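Hi everyone, sorry if this is the wrong subforum. Our group has a chain we'd like a structural model of before ordering constructs, and none of us has done structure prediction before. Sequence below.
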Amino acid sequence: MNNDISSIEKMKLSEHPTWHKLLFYESSGTLSQQTKSAVLTDGFFLSKNGRFDPKSELLATLHAFIQPESEVADTHAQCVFRGRFLWLKQKLAWTEKDLTFQKCTEYEAWSSNGSITSISVVLASGYLGNPASYYGHLLIKMNLQGTELKTKLEDVSINYGAIVPENENPITYIAKGLFGGYDAGFSNIQFYFHNHNYGENENRDLWEYELDLSYDETQLIVAHTWEVMKHTYTYYFLDKNCAYRLADLLEIIEGINLLPDNPLWVMPQSLIQKLNAFSRKGKPLVKSTVYRPSRQSRLYHGYSNLDEQGRDSVKKIAYDISMLEESDFLDTGVTSKQEIVDVLLDYYQYARNPDLLEKDINNSHYRKVLATRYQLPPGKPTAIFSPENMPHMGRNPSMFNIGVLHNDALGYGYSLRIRPTYYDTLDYDYGHVKNAQLSMADLKLTLFDNRVYLRSFDIVNIDSVNNYATGLPGDTGNSWKLKFGLVRQNLLCEKCIIFRAQGDMGKTVSFSNSMVAGAYVGGAIHNNKNSEGNVFLRASAFLNIAYGDKNRLRVEMEQRTYLESPVDNQFKGSAWWRYKLSRNSDVRLGYERNRVNELSTSMSFYW
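Answer:
Right subforum, don't worry. Here is the predicted structure as C-alpha cells:
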C-alpha cells in the first residue's frame, strides 16, 4: 500500500468535507481563514501538524493504518481511530489484500459487536434548576436490537457537556459558559442513567427521534463516537454546545446538514426542528418519535384524569397514610382503587428523596402503597399518553419585534426588540414551560422625536413557574425569578438607564389548564440614580389566561418600597395580550403603568 499513497493523494481526500468533519476542522476566524481542529487533545492527532493541516494528518493516518499488529492489544491506529478507518476503508475499497485488518476487542465490546442497529437523538426539556440545562439538552442514543423496554434502557447514550467543578455557582457558570471558560467532552453511559436522572430526579420530559440511516451509516457514527471519547474541546453555552457537537457527529454522513454555516447560537430545540424537517433521498430523516414523560408529568396526568372523588382520596392518603386502611378507600371499586394507588405511587416517587432512606417518611409510605397495589388485580396497562405538542412543532427560538407606542409624557414613538433566545411568559410554545420565561441578551430600543433610546438589555431573565401544582405535600407551586441587566428606571425618563439585579420567591396556583396566578416577594440592587438609592423591596402578583392555542393574556402588578431613599413607594402595573398569527409570527397589545401610562401595538417574527 505504500506505493499507493501517492495515488491516494491525488484523490484529494484531505479536502473532503467528511474528513474535515471527522477531525472537527473549523475556520479559525483569522484573516487567513486558517483551518484548525476544535479538538484540544494532542492524542487525537497522528501528525505533529495535524491540528492545523488536514493533509498531513491524512498521510499520517494512512501510514499508521498499514503498520504491523501492535504488541499491546487495541492500541493500533485502526482500533483507536475507528471512524477514520471505516470511512477510508469505504472510500478506498480496502480489502484484506490491501492491508491487515486489526482485531479491536475493546471497540467490539463497546459497540456491542455490531448489534447497534439505529441512532436516535433525544431531547430533554429545559430544566431551570441548572444553568447548564436552561435551554434543554440533547443526547445521542445508540439503539440495540430488540424491542423490550429493558433493552431500550440498556442502549448506550452519548452525552456532550462542559467539565464544570463541583459547587460552581450559576453566575460563574453562565459567564464562563458564554466566553469559553470551560473544557468539554463526550461521555457514554447506558440510557437508563439519563432516563432516571432527567425523567425521575429532575422531572424533565424526554423526546426521542429515531433516524432513518443505513446499517453502514449507523456503524460509521458509532465508530466515530468511539474515537472522540476522552478528548476535550472548548465549551460555549450559546453555540459550541451539546446541540452543535452532537450535530457534528451526525454530519459525518454525507448529505446530512443540520448546522448553519456561521451560527451565532445553536439551540437544542432548533436542531430538533431542523432534524425533523430534514429529508434525504426523498425520505424524512426522522422515522419515528417516542415521548417519555417525566415522573412529574405522569403524576399530573394521572391526577388530572381522576374524578373529584379520586382526587379527594389521593389528598387524604397523602396527608395521612392511615387513610389507606379506612373505609373511604377500602369501599372504593377495584378500578378506582387501581387508579388512585397508581397516582399515589407516582406521587411518592416524585416527593421522596431516595438518598435519605428511612429519614424521609415518603419512602416508607411508598412501600405501603406499593404493597397495596400488589394486593389488587393487574388491571389494564396504563396508556402511554402523548404530550399536547412535540418540540419540533414549535416556533423558531429567536424573536424580532417592532411596534408603535404612545407615552403620556413623550408622545408617539416606535419600539424595536431583538431577543436571540428563547421564550417569554406570553409566547411559550411547544416544548417550553408554560407561563415561564427564559431569555438572554434581550434588547429593547425606542425611538422618540427622531432619537433612539435604550429601554432595556436583559443579560439573563428567568421566571421559573410550577404550573400544575396538585396541592399535595411537597408539590405546592414554588416559583422564583432572577433577572439582571440594564433597564430604564421608569416610563417618564428615556435616558435614565441603570444596571439592576433582582430576585424573587413566590407561589403559583393553577385554577385550570388555562389559568394560573402567582404572588412573589423579592427585591433588587442597582446603581443610585435620581435619588432612588441602591435597594428596593417589592411585592408582585400576576395572572395568566390562555384561550385556545392563539390567545394569551398576562396581567401584572407590583408595589415597590425604596430603602435609603426619599422616593415615595411606587406602584407598577401592566397588561399584555398576544394573538398568534402563524407558527412564527404574532401580534401584541400592551399597557404599562410606571410613573406614566404607555400603550403599545407590535408584531413579532420568530427566526
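For your construct planning: The radius of gyration is 28 Å. The chain has four domains: 2-104, 112-292, 295-374, 394-606.
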